[in-house]
From TrEMBL:
This is Choline transporter. Signal peptide: none annotated. PROSITE patterns: BCCT. It is found in: Cell membrane. Pfam families: BCCT (PF02028).
């Protein structure tokens, strides 16, 4: 079964299908709603700001609702054609679009500066890895650690289990070594390239005075600053349009994978090779859409940050159970098989 409680079977034993197993799945569902809702809540205002810039309209809450509706249309189409023809094709197309976008920014922007700063940043990360991971800012209390480090770690804790379930579903036939290597290796490499190119392009704009990115973030918010950075490129409106399309598809595939994991965990009689019912995935997609809209309506980013922190706390326990269960399963799987002469 594609449920978190099943991943904890080596610890829970006979309780996997009992009360403790159901409680574990419930904690997982609450965590995913908070984490995935936060992802959608962060992405939606950015896409709405981009569309507002392109079409000359103000980025209002109504426009953000429209962005979520567009994601829902893409998600619905993906659900009805299945994993192989739906989310797989969407993801493949989006990866190609993102690669082309990053290559364009690298070549059209300050190429040498981006390459030098990326290399320099990797060196600093390796050199100061332990310091950055243990830094708590005890003297100045700038709240950087709370607003960034703690928040993102909590967000990733809440995202981890649902991403694990989805990756396990689409990775059938691969070895554990292959899955771990690809997720850690290529996932980290993709993030490093993305931040290295786009982040250092924005840094170049700030340092050269071409665009006051810091002032835009402080005065108008992060979505407006991101749109301004992308629009500053050659053929900026075209590039921004491509960026919005890629972001929209990323959001839709996040919907799909999160709804799939939620529906799998909430299903009681799902076979090994069976997918959750379409209506079930649609139900969770609606829940995922309504939550970030409600938080954006209430107070913007702060409620979403709080939701991620709250959702991640119970999942820390689930993570420990999953880690112990995996260790026991691997140890048992590696025990020498005894043979007996008949």
């Amino acid at each position: 079964h594609m449920r978190v409680s099943s991943a904890c079977h080596m610890v829970l034993g006979g309780q996997t299908a009992g009360f403790i197993g159901r409680a574990t799945d419930t904690l997982f569902i609450v965590g995913v709603l908070g984490a995935a809702g936060t992802s959608l809540g962060f992405g939606t205002p950015m896409i709405a700001a981009g569309l507002g810039y392109l079409f000359g309209v103000e980025s209002t809450f109504g426009l953000q609702v429209g962005v979520v509706a567009l994601c829902a249309v893409l998600f619905t189409a993906s659900v009805y054609v299945g994993l192989d023809r739906g989310i797989k094709r969407l993801s493949n197309v989006n990866v190609a679009i993102t690669k082309a976008l990053l290559l364009f920014v690298l070549l059209a922007g300050p190429t040498l500066f981006i390459l030098k700063m990326t290399s320099n940043s990797v060196g600093l990360l390796v050199y100061q890895f332990l310091r950055m991971n243990t830094w708590t800012d005890p003297l100045t209390n700038s709240r950087f650690v709370e607003d960034w480090t703690v928040f993102y770690w909590a967000w990733w804790v809440a995202i981890g289990p649902f991403m694990g379930i989805f990756v396990a579903r689409i990775s059938e036939g691969r070895t554990i070594r292959q899955v771990v290597f690809c997720m850690l290796g290529f996932g980290s490499l993709g993030c490093a390239v993305y931040y290295g190119i786009l982040g250092n392009y924005a840094l170049h704009l700030e340092l050269t005075g071409l665009l006051n990115v810091t002032a835009l973030v402080l005065e108008q918010g992060e979505p407006t600053a991101i749109v301004a950075v992308i629009a500053s490129l050659p053929a900026g409106r075209v590039v921004l349009g491509v960026f919005c399309i890629a972001s929209l598809v990323f959001l839709a595939t996040t919907y799909d994978s999160a709804a799939y994991a939620l529906a799998s965990s909430a299903s009681t009689a799902l076979g090994h090779d069976e997918d959750p019912e379409r209506w079930h995935r649609m139900f969770w997609a609606v829940a995922l859409a309504l939550l970030p809209l409600a938080m954006m309506r209430i107070g913007g980013l702060d409620p979403m940050r709080t939701a991620s922190l709250v959702a991640s706390m119970p999942l820390l326990i689930v993570f420990v159970l999953m880690a112990v269960s995996l260790t026991r399963a691997l140890r048992e799987d590696n025990l020498p098989k005894r043979t007996y002469d008949s």
